[in-house]
Amino acid sequence: MNFSERFTEDAVFILIAMIVAAILGWLLNWWGSKSRIASLEDKLASLNREHANCSSKLSDTERKLKECEARKSRPAAVATPVVSASPKVNFDADAAKAVFGKKIKLDDLKIVEGIGPKIEGIFNADGIKTWRQLADAAPSKLKSLLDAAGPRYQMHDPTTWPKQAEMAFDGKWKELLAYQDRLDGGKE
């Protein structure tokens, strides 16, 4: 076999090998892109589900915010339900004055250590106007009212306030004073 025949056979073999390699490369690339597309489609479906979940939570939050704003914008007389049968208050102004050394008014929330005129006003605006209502309020609700009133009120800890209001409601003036003597700014 002469040189030109040998060169032609080698060139054909190299050409066929290159064509086969190109076809294999294209097939591998096509196969890999299909799996990447499937992976990206799965990721897109997951993100769409997450987006729908977040949108649902957002609309719930917006609805709750509107309800809260509507309650705040109603006059206090409308926002506070009228209770037909109020519980009996054991209030004896003379007994309270004898223990505290000053005149105490019925349902004065300021008798509770830690509550001053501003905080009493915050609670009154939300419908907490009596010792019974304060005694029945969850400390977490009281804390959320304080937090909503701004940074000036966020430092207060209302944990003991319902207990103090319960004692005032029950007319347990000596117990209330003794309990308050153990407190530090309304905190145990």
Task: Supply database-style keywords.
68% helix, 188 residues, mainly alpha, 2 domains
Envelope shape: rod-shaped
Tell me roughly what share of residues is in helical segments.
Answer: 55-70%
Count of discrete structural domains? 2
Number of strands: 0
Structural class: mainly alpha
- Overall pLDDT, averaged? 84
Helix and strand element order: HHHHHHHH
The major beta sheet can be summarized as: none
Please mark out the parts with pLDDT under 50 across 5 or more consecutive residues, or reply none: 77-85
The N- to C-terminal Cα distance equals 108 Å
Q: Write down the Rg.
A: 38 Å
How many helical elements?
A: 8
Strand content: under 5%
